[in-house]
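Hi C.,

You asked whether I'd gotten around to modeling the 565-residue construct. I have! Everything is below, sequence then structure, no commentary in between.
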Amino acid sequence: MKQVLIINITRMGDLVQTVPLIRRLQHEWPGVAIDLVVDTRFAPVAVLLPGLRTVIAYDFQRLIDESRSMAKDVVALYQDLASWAKPLVDVRYDRVVNLTFNRRSGLLAGYVNAPDIRGVANAPDGTTIVRNPWMGYFTDLHHHRRFNCFNLVDLYALGGSGPGPFSPLTVSVPTDAAEWARALLARVTPLVWIAVQVGASEPIKAWRPEYFGQTMAAISRQIEAGFVLIGTSKEKEAVQQACAVYRAAGGTGPLCDQVNRTNLSQLVGLLDHCQLLLTNDTGPMHLAVGVGTPVIDLSVGHVDFRETGPYGPGHWVVQPDLACAPCGFDQVCLHHACKDRLVAEQVAALCLHVLRAGPFPTHMTGVRLYESSIDADGLVCYQLRAGQTDAIAEWYGSFWRTFWYEAMTGQSSLLAGPEGPSPDRADVSRLAEPLRPLLSRLTAQSNQLVRLSRQQPCPVAELQAAQARLREERQRAIALAVQSPAFGPLAVAFLRDSHNGDAQGLANLAQQQATAFHAWRNRTNEVLRRLGTFGTTSKHESRRVGILGASPAVVSSHRDLTVNS
C-alpha cells in the first residue's frame, strides 16, 4: 500500500483547496493512505476533508512565536519538532507533498525522508529548494500574473500527483451542525438565505462595507431574502457598518448576525443551508464551494481570481476593469479605486440572476464578469461573460496555459490555444533576432564551463574568466527577454532553474547551470516555433525538454558557479 504525507500548515482556505489533490492521489494510486499535517488551529477544518487516513496537528504558530520572541532557544525548538515528527519518519512514506512554502516546512519534509518530495525541501547545504516543476511554477507566477491561467487548486493536484480527471472541492457537513443551522434559520422563513462576508483577512481584499449594505438592500427590494452575516471578530465593525447602511437604504429582510459566533462545523452548516454566498476572497468562500453553495467572488485589491477564485463550475467573479487590477502583493495603494468600480445595484442584479430571480445583468459597467467552468483538460477556467479584457493578456494567457501544461505533463492539451497571431508579433520578431543567437552562445559557453570544471588540475583563471563572460551575456539575455510576454516567463523559469538544485561540487554545479541554459534555449525555440517566427524544435522534442531539461524549481537560494583561487 502506498502512503503519502501532505504538509499544509498555513491557511484554512488552502486546506479546503487540497481536496482535489487527495482525489488525484487516489486516482494515481488506488488504495493509497493519505495523512495530513496541519497547524493545530486548522485541525477542525481538516477533519471535514474526505479521503484522509489521519490528521496530524502541531502548534506551528507557537514555534514561530517562541522563535521570534526568543522565549526558547531555536535549537531546542527544532529538537522538540524533531521529537514530535519522529513517528512520521518511521511510517516510511512513499511521497511527501509540501504545500507550505517556507523553511520550517522544508525542514520537516526533508526530515520525514521520503524518496519522493514535492514542494519545498532543504538542500544539503541548508538552502531552500522546491522540487517538482508545477510547484516551481507556483513560485514563479507572481512575476507574470497577467498571463497565468492556473488555479492554485490545480497546481496542488498537478504538482502533488499529476494530470487526471476533474474532482470538485468537497467538505463534509456534520449532522449536528446541519441541524443547528436549520434550527437557527427556521426562526424566520424568507424566500432565500444569502450568506455575506463583508470582511477579509486583509483590508485591501475587502469591498467597502457600505456597498455590501447597499447591495443587500437592493436585493431585498426585489425578493424576500434574509442575510446571514459571517466573519471573525476583526470584521465586526465593518459588518455593523454594512447592516446600518442596509437598514438606512430600506432593507427589510431579516439579518442573522453570526460574526464570531460559530465554530467551523457550524459555519459549514450555515453555508450549506444558504442558497448563495456573496464574499470577498476568503476561506469561507472555499467552504461554500465545498458544500455546493454558489459563490459570487468580489475580486478586489491584490486578489487574482485565476489563482484563488472559486473552484469548479457555476460560480461568478466580479473584477474591476482597471489597468492596475490586481495590484502587486508588495504594492501600497493609496486610493483603492478598484473597490469603487463595483456598483452595488449591478452586484445585486447578478445575485438575483444566480438565484434565478432575475435576468442576466447585461449592463455591467466598470468591471469584468466571469463564470467559472471546467475546460477540456479537466482544469478550472473562467469565461468572460461581461466587460472587456486586454488583448495581450488574453492572448498570452491562453498561450502560456497550453504551453506549460504540455511542457510539464508531456501530454497534448485538448485546448485549442489562442486564435490568430500574437498581438505583438512585430515586437516578438524584433526581440527574437538578437535573443535567439545569444541563447545559443550561452548554451555553448555553459557547456565549456562543464568541460573546464572537470579538468584536473582545475584551470582556475580560465574558469573564472569564462564564468564572468557567461554572467555578462546572461544579463543581456534576461534584459531582452523580460521586455516581451513571449519570453519573460521563460527568463523567470530559467532563473528558478539555475538557482534551484541540490548539486554539490564544482562540476555538478556547472552541469546544473548548463542544464538550465539548455532548457531556456529549447523552450524559447519552441515558443518561437509556436508563434511561427523562428525555431525548429518539434513539439514532441519540446515537451521532452520541458520535463527532463530543467531542474526541479525555485528561488530562495541564489547560488552561482563561483571559483576561488
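If it helps when you're writing up: The domain at 175-389 is CATH 3.40.50.2000 (Rossmann fold).

Thanks,
B.
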